[in-house]
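LOG
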Amino acid sequence: MIEFGNFYAQIAKKSLASWLEVLPKQLKVWRDEQAHGLLPNWEKVLAKLPDQSGAKIDLTNGVTIEAKEGLAEGQIRKVENLLRSYHPWRKGPYRIFDFDIDTEWRSDWKWDRLAQHISPLKYRQVLDVGCGNGYHMWRMLGADAEFVVGIDPSSLFLAQFEAIRQLAGNPQNIHLLPLGIEQLPPLQAFDTVFSMGVLYHRRSPIEHIFQLKDQLVHGGELILETLVVEGNKDTVLTPQGRYAKMNNVWFLPSVDLLALWLEKCGLEQVRCVDVTVTSVQEQRRTQWMTNESLEQFLDPNDPSRTIEGLPAPKRAVMIARKPSANDDD
């Protein structure tokens, strides 16, 4: 069974200690009332994975985990088959032993686009909001972050993360919690907060930005990545129905309007460091994610439009700073 006792013990010694006033109760409610019905099956898969304590992991140019000496070929194939039972794998890729988890998203491309622009993560406590199965969390750890916490309400993503962490030898400075940002108290304890691919799913983007700001220490850095459209400070797309077959897309602002939103929420040094049209090479079907993907979400006769006739997905990366305590806020 997935437990969070080690996480509780660790944050009790950190600036996150106040979180313990609400977190254990929240996770009990999740386990009792909100966890996916297949979670017990996914936990049984975890129990079948080999003990990889002391495993060698490489997080410099991706996420690579080497098999411990003596792990037989048959055991490696068993691990591969066990991990395939966690379909669909959306964020990655991962190199596990001698096989690749070829995920729907080339999440490494997004990381490469933003990593050169963010403040160094060394010695920092980092929060990844809507982290999926935690791929970018591993890259943050590889960038020398001191402590990485991800939140995502998906039970499947939690199981995928725990599988990777177990195969990596259960490092204790990286954790995923099955929560949404709205469940977090204003901790004001993280040096860097990431929100990537979340804002357009929120009914109130302004409230989401304030929630992110409330997790940052004074002087902390926010990295916000979201879908955008062309236009000026008055431009925002509100899909009437679905967007790229997604029924939970609310607002796609222009980059200028997104910057204005961040400034209106009291953030400073706001800048856009990347705008990239999502390609069918970056998001696609694979053997590890056989459901529909971007190619099926676009107009087959005009890939610059979605199947609904709206502008095709384009993503911007924004960086902003929470003012220092002695600054006007």
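LOG (cont.) second protein
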Amino acid sequence: MTERRNLLPVAVFCAAIAVSLTGCAAALVGATAVGISAATDTRSVGTQIDDQTIEVRVITALKGEDRLDDSRVQVVSFNRSVLLLGQVTNSSLRDLASHLVRNTQGVDRVHNELKVAPVISIGQISQDTYITSKIKAKFIADDKIKASDIKVVTENGEVALMGFVERDIARQAIDIARNINGVTRVIDAFE
């Protein structure tokens, strides 16, 4: 009985610590996920950092341009290639976005897949997220495809695939993505 009384304050203390550290736990889990992602990525850590830096630079350049305020532009960088997906109100804004990206330090190539169209709805964004998750699940289930080698981005039903893979793996990945319900087009941005 004495042991139980002694354990009660310890249990309360541990519970208090656990509750107060929930933010730290979330940060630890997030940092671990980033570390695992970095470790399984085919790019070197330096290239991954370069790509993140390029994304920040491009996003900053696009946000600094008031004419793009009514647009939706997703920016993805992989091995110094930048993919632009989204919607702009006219073709001159599409060209402007390309120009801003090409003039961004560190960018080697631009894949401009921006569409002149109204900005998509939150419902479509949710559907795109679902499509991306289905494709990634199919890649994981396929024993020939290393899912961590392929970056999948979906915008308005169009799926872009980026990464370093052999041509036969790229074809297989494209075929898998093409056959997912809701996919209207697959963009081959493989290297």
